[in-house]
Amino acid sequence: MTAEWSIQEVARLTGTTSRTLRHYGDKGLLTPTSTGGNGQRYYDQQALVRLQQILLLRGLGLGLSAIAETLDGQHDTVTALNRHLRLLRREQERLSRQVASIRTTIRKLEGGEPLMAEEVLDGFDHTRYEEEVSQRWGREAYEKGDRWWRSLSAEEKAGFRQQGLDIARDFVAARENGEMADGVVAQDVARRHVEWLGITTEPSRDYVIGLGEMYVADPRFGENYAPEGMDPTPYAEYVRDVLKVYAERNL
After folding, report:
1. How does pLDDT run across 65-98, given as a tens digit for each residue?
2. CA-CA distance, 181 to 193, in Å (whole number)?
3. How many CA atoms lie within 13 A of 134 on its CB side?
4. Residue in 180, 128, 126, 195 with CA at minimum distance from that of residue 154
5. Which of 7, 29, 67, 69 is the most exposed place for a label (fewest CB within 10 A)?
6. How far apart are CA 251 and CA 153, in angstroms?
7. Quick one: CA dihedral 31, 37, 38, 44, positive or negative?
8. Can you tell me which residues the record assigns to a coiled coil (predicted)?
C-alpha cells in the first residue's frame, strides 16, 4: 500500500499551514492524492516531491503563477530538481559570503580597523537573480533591468527603495484607519504605487491586477505590505483590492 500523509502532517513537516496547502490545491498546484470521507486531504510520495519543488521555487521568489508554468512545462522531475539545486547552492554561497562580510565588519568596527568596501559589500549583489530571471522571462528582460539598475547612483537606488517602503507604510496606515479600497486616500496610494512601478516597466491593467493577486498568493511579497510579525494575508488582500479598483478605473 502506498504511503500517504494527511494535510495536517504535511503542514507540520513543512512548517506551513493547512490553509496554504489547500490554497495550492485550489490553484491547481498541488492536487491531493486522495480525499477521505470527512474531506481530509492526503498526499503520497509523488505529491510530496511536487510540494518540495513548489517550496523551492517560492524560496527563490517566484509567484504561484510562475511556479505553475514552471512545473507544467517540465517533463523530467530529476532534471528540474537539479536545476533548482544549482540555484539553491548559488543562494547558499551568497548567504555565506554575507555572513562572512558582516562578521568582518563587526570585528573591524570593534577593533577600530579601517573597512574595505569590497569586504563590507561582498555578497550584496542584485545579479544573484540573473539566472532565475533569464530562465523565467528571457535574457532581454534581465539585461534591461540590469542596465537600468546599474545606471542609478547609490543615492538613486536608496531613493527607489525608500519610495517602495513609504508606499507600503501608507497602505498599512490606510487599512488600519478603516479606509475602503475605493476611498480617496487608498486610491492615492495606489496611484503612487503604479507610478513607482512605472519607473521600471509599463504597468497595464492586467499587470497591476495580477501583481495584486501575486501579493496575496505569495507571502514573500505580501509580507512587504504588513507590519512586522503580523499575518500578511489580510494586508495583502487589501492592497490587491485597492490596486484592482485603481487599475479598472484608470488603466
Report:
1. 777 877 776 666 676 667 667 766 766 666 676 6
2. 14
3. 9
4. 126
5. 69
6. 31
7. negative
8. 78-105
Residue 231, φ and ψ in degrees, nearest 5: -60, 120
CB 14 within 8 A of CB 51: yes
H helix intervals, the chain: 7-14, 18-26, 45-59, 64-73, 77-111, 117-120, 130-137, 139-151, 154-176, 184-197, 205-217, 219-222, 232-250
Kindly state the cell numbers that stand for 196.
Answer: 513607482
DSSP string, 13-43: HHT--HHHHHHHHHTTSS--SEE-TTS-EEE
Give the single-character DSSP code of 178. Answer: T
Grid cell, residue 217, equals: 498568493
Coil, helix or strand at residue 81: helix
- Better pLDDT: 85 or 12: 12
The tens digit of pLDDT for each residue in 23-69 reads: 999 888 899 999 988 889 999 888 888 888 888 777 666 677 777 87
C-alpha cell at 173: 496606515
The sheet carrying 41-44 orders its strands as 4-6, 41-44, 34-35
d(CA 85, CA 59): 12
Candidates 115, 51, 110; CA nearest to 84 is 51
Backbone angles phi, psi at 78, to 5 degrees: -65, -40
**Cell 494575508 found at:** 233
User: Which is it for the CA torsion 181, 185, 186, 192, positive or negative?
Assistant: positive
Work out whether the CA dihedral 140, 138, 81, 219 comes out positive or negative: positive
pTM of the model: 0.47
